[in-house]
Amino acid sequence: MKNVGILGFGVVGSGVAEVIAMNHDKIASHVGEVIQVKRVLDLREFPDSPFASLITHDADEFFGDSDISIVVETIGGARIAYEFTKRALSLGKSVVTSNKELVSTHGVELMQLAEDNGCCYLFEAAVGGGIPIIRPLHRCLAANEIIRIQGIVNGTTNYILSSMRNVGLSYEDALKQAQQKGYAEQNPTADVDGIDAQRKLSILSSIALNGLYVSPDAIHAEGISSISLDDIEFADKIGCSVKLLASFFNRDGGKPSAFVAPFFVSKNELIASVEDAFNMIIVEGNALGEAMFYGQGAGKLPTASAVVGDVLDAALHSGRNPHITKWYVNADEESVIMPYSDVITNVVVKSCASNADSLMQTFSSFDCKVVCDDSSCSAVVVKGISHKEIEEIIASVIDGSWMHYMD
Amino acid sequence: MKNVGILGFGVVGSGVAEVIAMNHDKIASHVGEVIQVKRVLDLREFPDSPFASLITHDADEFFGDSDISIVVETIGGARIAYEFTKRALSLGKSVVTSNKELVSTHGVELMQLAEDNGCCYLFEAAVGGGIPIIRPLHRCLAANEIIRIQGIVNGTTNYILSSMRNVGLSYEDALKQAQQKGYAEQNPTADVDGIDAQRKLSILSSIALNGLYVSPDAIHAEGISSISLDDIEFADKIGCSVKLLASFFNRDGGKPSAFVAPFFVSKNELIASVEDAFNMIIVEGNALGEAMFYGQGAGKLPTASAVVGDVLDAALHSGRNPHITKWYVNADEESVIMPYSDVITNVVVKSCASNADSLMQTFSSFDCKVVCDDSSCSAVVVKGISHKEIEEIIASVIDGSWMHYMD
Predict the structure, then answer these.
(1) For chain A, domain boundaries
(2) Which residues of chain A have a CB within 8 Å of the CB of B142?
(3) What are residue A97's DSSP bridge partners?
(4) Cβ within 8 Å of B, A 42-101
(5) Do the chains contact at A140 and B23, CB–CB below 8 Å?
(6) What is the pLDDT of residues A218-227, one digit of tens each?
(7) Which CATH architecture has domain B2-129+300-316?
(8) From residue A1, how far is each of A24, A55, A182 by CA, in Å?
């Protein structure tokens, strides 16, 4: 028998207890022994929960229980969760988490601590909720140089963009609806400003670079709060959907790039069809080519599914780290990621003041084509332009706007 | 340093050598030591290959080389490959393969042999080519009861169906084209008759059932050789694509079902948009909900990518089985899978002799709806009907045809 302790009994934490109970027999037969939740540490009481009797408020009691060999951290944030994770790992207890903020901020230190203490720090649930992505990327694609990761990694913003497009809601109304339905938090900043996606991209990029840590601070992040219904309708007109994409590129031997920003995505791409709170992540390896992973990127049971998958891995490999995951910091302290202004991208440039001919002339030194040319406005796709260049042209040459483009 | 030996230097085997050479540095840094191919056993000579000097024709020399701790089996088939795999595992050498025929036929014995000898038998590349699916299913979703797997697992047939639809080729011409382009073999039986998909479904089902072995013989398999251009055009008319799907269901506590057959797939489903030789596999877990995996299901480097991923796993976990994969045979020898005639499914029934009203009347005891009703023919979707029932009705009541339906 392996005993699990849960830190934080919110949505995901209680889901973990539920999944372990619901699939008790399958799990026991898979691991070869029973897995059970022994204690839950939370400041609150949960009198109506079937797990009410497991709740303790006493951290010393929780960590002092030597029966508990696997700790699930579902507190969130990088303060108490950080202290508790260090405490558990220092005691040789494996820690499993869905906490992208903590992994992306303190992953380097925590993975080292796990190794030093002969246990694991596992975080499959930190990106893509229930979708398997960390293990496939780290293990199945280990023989590849990862040259691209691009995906919808935040369900809240995709839900809002879907509502704007399918129901015709304004950004504000779509956000309100997402909050009512529980897809967005009352303070939606981390989601709508792209911070959640930035943290997830930090984790994916660090794995893609074979452990070379990419701090979230190094990743440019824009959200969707400036996306208007006009943008959504215009996207439709040029055969695109607006999607908030987390993008990592590492081609041609230059510095890798990583940024979070809204894209016009051609409807020819599968990812343009991803609706509501679903996630899709494209991974491109130099041997594999493209693979895609799709599913529910959040939610109680899907996320708990991934957390418990890691619990089973920790149980099967007790006393060692089955992932052999370790991140390290760039020794010369220079940023791992190229500055956003230098990133070469494809964009759609839209102008209501210029006609298509004059747009084409402005961008004549680039690979470009007209995608809209009517009485209300004109637009061109420009390929292979740097962020700095397009910003300068929009600031000084053209009365218009631009957005990243994917086809 | 870890030395690899390759059995069979065909498309995938030579791809493995290529990927190990191409990504030498990445691989060494991931594993913490250099991985190199030391010997290749093949009856043929490859004078133009950069690996020509590694070729040996002498099996005793190959297996007697105690430097080789990991063997890649890319011979294919279940005869010599079977003997060689047993020989390698008996010597405590881990074996990694893309050979779905061998895994689906002798997997139970070979995994046991690996365990007995403290090594691994790994086969991520046996299903989905380069797409990570075995490890995600077996490990990431281990906390789930797997209630459904449904997917396009054979690229050749999907390529043929795509050509029929997009170019308007007949089945025979599309097959010829696929052969010319190297997507289909000169003897295409294993692909077009659904045997390849049957083997892959045997592997996926055995993992989904937590190691309870599902023999390919227990899986009903139909191919695509009876699909006509009329079927493809009719599918389009009712908002569907024709796809050859491998399906596993394990709902409601009854016996699981597993079969390979063509489906009309509603275009609302992402899987209907999978074109050419690509694969997509949907997995549904009772905690996770749905997840999808998409990518190149065959081809030299994509398949080699998955094989080498397993080589790295074997290297990282030498002396033990990192997957702890073991299959077992049902003790009471009754078939694990329900007879195909009892499988409850959804179907499209098409008739040029009956009108929609009379079709609806025939199926009035089922959930059904009209999907086509014009001068040339009529069709209804019938839900929750058994294979036996629909066969009986088509044989004796209606002058028409039927196909499975997915929406």
Answers:
(1) 2-129+300-316, 134-295, 340-406
(2) 27, 30, 308-309, 312-313
(3) A73
(4) none
(5) no
(6) 999 999 999 9
(7) 3-Layer(aba) Sandwich (3.40)
(8) 12, 20, 36
